[in-house]
Amino acid sequence: MAWYVPPTLNNSLKTVEWMWQSNPNPFSESEPATWRHYSDLENLIIEEAFQNKQPQAQLDDYFIDFNRNLQISNTDDYKRGPIKRVERKREGKHLRGARFTDLPVSYERLFGGEYGWVAPFVIEVRRDLKLEPDDLPSKKPNTIPMLVEKAARGIIEEGKHIRKEREAEKMAKMLRETKNSGMEEVWKCCAYLYTLDSFLYKTLNAAMRLIGDKEQDKVWRSKIRTLGPFCLLLWDDPFNTKLTTKKTLYRGATLTNEQIAAYEKMAEDDKAFGSFQAYTSCSRNPVVAEFFSGNVLFIMEVVMAFIADLSPLSSYSDEEEELVTPGVCFRVKSVKFDCTKNKHLIHLQLRQRFSRQHKHDLPNQQTTNQTPDAYDRDDDRTTRRARAAADRTLDARRTLTLTGRYLDRDGNWKEK
């Protein structure tokens, strides 16, 4: 899978960064200049305008004057400062620590519950869009333009809420340019947008991590209409259709003593499982995760889970980013303190599970007398037994080879 190049840009974007001088008095000659990076979306907007030889680039809070190499406030003409364009080798691009260090589950609810093979957010999005289980865009290409348009409009609406309308419009434009190109191109664009350091992945994941917190139920459900279509397009990955096995991923974090103790307690019970209800960025490279980690390094052994390698699509390929999809469960294998690293090493085992142990913890937003839909189906006895075996087996990989079949993203058995 080749690196994704947005149609409106060229390969120079991967090696170009725009920066602005952040000194209190940016025009002072008596103090050394301090330079800060523009965000990924701001870089995209500025670089496109520069490549098109436009005199200005319009950002949400500032505009860029290329003739004078200045950024100038949209509301105060006196707030201005120098900018510069830096070309660098690919490996010289700065890495982003926050992407691999925030806690991958809600602070209020340390361990997400088990709600089944498919994450509740994804199911509720499909319900909201009135899609049947077989109506995924990868299976029904005629739904792609509609879903792309809904995703684009939702991104713009969310951007307006936080005064990031220019950035939102840029992402929406990039996504709309793929709507007639097939699911593979749409997914690559969605994955690329996810790799950008923007409000999109932060807002989506912040909402999804609230699943299971009854007091926050309305909050995460409020994002189903706006960010749900994008979430579904990213989830319906046409490249990684089979479960990943035998892989180790890493992620850093800064945890309190109470949070570490909760992981230690969970490690004592080999039947205790939590789950990642949001998309979770990890790195294949322990050095990357450890460099940015606080007092904890998560070491994640992938037993069987849907994982997407985003590094070929990312402008930050040195991060070696891999994405754990929503709904993946984990159990804590061990918690140890490494004196040489001065960190707690928390070993997790990741696997998809059919268990719906906490499904009824989710407040029911449907009417009480509503007929159960296709997402509440009660599988036949043979399927239930096979799924129970998949949940129970100590060597889950063995389950994948039974009768020459494999489990798809919806937890259905498919012929190889």
Tell me briefly what this model is.
Helix content is 30%, strand content 20%. It is of the alpha+beta class and 416 residues long. The longest helix has 18 residues, at 144-161.
Question: Can you walk me through this structure?
Answer:
By secondary structure, the chain is α+β, with helices and mostly antiparallel strands. Residues 365-369 have low confidence and may be disordered. The chain is globular, with a radius of gyration of 23 Å. It starts with 15 loop residues before the first strand and ends with a strand. Helix 3 (144-161) runs antiparallel to helix 4 (165-176). Strand 3 and strand 4 form a beta hairpin. The protein contains twelve helices and 16 strands. The longest helix is centred in the middle third of the chain and has 18 residues, at 144-161. It has helices spanning 40-51, 120-128, 144-161, 165-176, 183-195, 199-208, 217-221, 224-235, 257-267, 286-292, 381-392, 396-399, and strands at residues 16-21, 35-37, 56-58, 62-65, 70-73, 80-87, 247-253, 274-276, 280-283, 296-304, 307-309, 321-324, 328-338, 343-351, 405-407, 413-415. It has three domains: 11-92, Signal recognition particle alu RNA binding heterodimer, srp9/1; 98-361, Alpha-Beta Complex (Toxin ADP-ribosyltransferase, Chain A, domain 1), CATH 3.90.176; 379-415, no CATH class. The protein has a six-stranded antiparallel sheet, with helices on one face. The chain has a five-stranded mixed sheet with strand order 7-10-14-13-8. It has a three-stranded antiparallel sheet with strand order 9-12-11.
